[in-house]
Amino acid sequence: MKKKTLPFDKDLFKRSVLYNVKTLYRKTMEEATPQEMYQAAAYAIKDAIVDHWMTTQKAAAEQDPKIVYYMSMEFLMGRAFGNNIINLQAYKAVKDALEELDIDVNVLEDQEPDPALGNGGLGRLAACFLDSLSTLGYMAYGCGIRYKYGMFRQKIQDGYQVEVPDAWLENGNPFELRRNEYAKEVKFGGYVTMYTDDMGRTMFKQEGYQVVKAVPYDLPVIGYGNGVVNTLRIWDAEPIQCFQLDSFDKGDYQKAVEQENLASQLCEVLYPNDNHIAGKELRLKQQYFFISASVQTAVQKYMQNHDDLRKFYEKAVFQLNDTHPTVAVAELMRVLMDDYQFSWDDAWDVTTKTCCYTNHTIMAEALEKWPVDLFQRLLPRIYQIVDEINRRFVDQIMRKYTGSAGIDVQAKIRSMAILYDNQVKMAHLAIVGGHSVNGVAKLHTEILEKRELKDFYEMMPEKFNNKTNGITQRRFLLHANPLLAEWVTNKIGDGWITDLSQMDKLKAFANDKKAQNEFMEIKFKNKERLAKYILEHNGVKVDPKSIFDVQVKRLHEYKRQLLNILQVIHKYNDIKTHPSKDFYPKTYIFGAKAAAGYLTAKLTIKLINSVADVINNDPDIGGKIKVVFIEDYRVSNAELIFAAADVSEQISTASKEASGTGNMKMMLNGAVTLGTLDGANVEIVNEVGEENAFIFGLTSQEVMEYEKNGGYNPMDIYNSDPNVKKVLDMLVDGTFSEDKELFRPLYNCLLNTINSSKADQYFILKDFESYLEAQKRISDAYQDKKRWAKMALLNTASCGKFSSDRTIKEYVDEVWHLDKVELQ
Ligand code: OAK
């Protein structure tokens, strides 16, 4: 029986494109630029989406399902055009229609700026989750900020990263809808006064504040083939009224200017930090801004068709994407108490039953803490509520532990209070103010329970749960790798598109020679496609027959790009000293953005580029190894890179990477993992089998043991391992830069001779030898073509667990308890 697919009127689409070119630009197709054609086609697609969007919202209004509000400072959506037509099941129809108009769909897709409202893992995960929520038919709102400038664009100049503003809205965004009718006011500053209401109750209100207007822009999130369209609602700030000079006295004029300034700054730019907190006042303003607007909207939406707000949690759940949206706890309390006259206890009951928190990192520098005075000044009423939550929670700790043998109650308070040391600890507020706390991979959740959040886990174990991350196969296989997607469908049918566990059926082909050849032939074509991109963008010619060894992710010390490039330097030395030794050619591919103020990370980028310069231009190497740094790593070029990877470098210091999701995207595309037992790598190896991955290095237990005992002394390794000594010396002997001192800071990070407890905090030298050995195993394995093909194929076949559909199902079953919306 033929499966039902969504209807799509190709001729209507064509007419619509022509009409849009005419009405938007007063041009014919022949006169229009590629950008104009893209806009015209995108508006035509939006027309098709709007019908589904309206149907979904109407069905939801009738069926009244519970809604998840996924609250996140970041949504790293990537380009919408291709993804939208894929999920509408209209990719082929659109491609054909465009061809008939003499337009190449790929050229058109390349006209779209990459919406980059996120830094990395956490933001991209939010985007995958929205895709899965729609595909599974659950009602969801993504709640975020419409930054005028997203993640900066990276230029590499003379080997250095240069940040260029990302003006992604320059040409407008055809997919968005401005919803002025849903605008909300958000208040900052001022002071809190007390009054008695008509019923004799003591009430609080904020006065003397500044106010901005939050205006939502809605973006459609289309489910695959089911007609469900959810909404990503991102908020922009506007001044509350365009002030007129003569209607203000002097004081008001001043205030009006301040309000105007506040509004113009609020949504200007995304903070470009990953796994690190900048602690800036404007960032806290951004947090409260989008949270207040989102919470007010959620409550109002509920009140449109319900009368008992005490049951709000039966119809709404707030998932807090890390601690950045945690003011939602206090904001919901405020709305319930101040706007709907709830008692504290009733408001607390609703709030804790509504909120849930996901932790995405254990890096100390990412733990969000705000100075009390800043928090209080900016959010006086919210602070008052947090203070009371804290008072009651500390009381609860004391009641629970006072008198218990062997328990230091003060130590418990110190480790768990929300307000301590003049700081507001956002993770503690998120844990106390909700009913679910989850980590993002098994190992990560274990570390939270046993170490980072041990006291909380002991006090409230029922709140803790694991939700191993996942990724959407629609974007990262169906769109990113059409050749492999088609091959998979030919072998096992297309069920995998909405049920990735069906990939398991590919295991039957693991030893099939023909299947292996086809699989590797597709990989080769994808490597050719990437080689072309690299030639065009880097001017470097790489050989698609070489092993493509790929490390693409944010630049962070714990992710250890430095370990990778040191290993490359060692390989370079090896080839130079043993020119006749058999060595299978390798292309090392890097892509990474560094936070603008993160000097060590930026210097690592410079080092990679300098090493690339030396190696790629050394005639002695004869192309045996090449090093490429891909500029401006982002979702759109990631899709090309994942499809072309042979080796997936996942080499973080064990215990530091919460999960990782690039590891899953590469596995899906048939790359073999070279990694440590960290984050979700552990589960990847579990699924694919140890014999189909290359694992090395310290375990998380060993790392944590060293850390407990003050680290180790890397000097011992430097002095005893001549390979290590040679590589490190080359950082400071002028091999890679005329200025011998340029890379000294990296050298010092590894061998801090002044303070050895600060040396090599990420265990790079400790893992060096075992990493070299794993690299060697890779090269050997690759030369056995059959063995490699089987391994690569088995990686694709074993990735079923890592779909974000699975993750979302777990959230729904165990935490959110949503009902599906049914479309006729
Ligand atoms: C960013 C800012 C603050 C805190 C965490 C992050 C972040 O992006 N963390 C990453 O989240 C991903 C999704 O859960 C994980 O896969 C990464 O391991 C983690 O580093």
Secondary structure blueprint with pairings:
Elements: H1 10-25, H2 34-63, E1 67-71, H3 81-87, H4 91-100, H5 105-109, H6 121-136, E2 140-145, E3 153-157, E4 160-164, E5 177-178, E6 184-188, E7 191-196, E8 202-207, E9 210-222, E10 229-239, H7 250-266, H8 281-305, E11 316-321, H9 327-339, H10 344-354, E12 355-358, E13 369-371, H11 372-378, H12 380-401, H13 409-416, E14 419-420, E15 423-425, H14 426-432, E16 436-439, H15 442-452, H16 454-459, E17 464-466, H17 473-479, H18 482-492, H19 513-538, E18 547-552, H20 561-577, E19 586-591, H21 599-616, E20 625-629, H22 635-644, E21 647-650, H23 662-668, E22 672-675, H24 681-688, E23 694-695, H25 700-708, H26 714-720, H27 722-731, H28 744-750, H29 764-783, H30 785-797, H31 804-816
Parallel strand pairs: 1-2, 1-11, 2-10, 11-12, 12-16, 16-17, 18-19, 18-21, 19-20, 21-22, 22-23
Antiparallel strand pairs: 3-4, 5-9, 6-9, 7-8, 9-10, 13-15, 14-15
Helix pairs in contact: 1-2, 1-4, 3-17, 6-31, 8-9, 9-10, 9-12, 11-12, 12-13, 19-22, 19-30, 20-21, 20-27, 26-27
The protein binds N-(phenylcarbonyl)-beta-D-glucopyranosylamine.
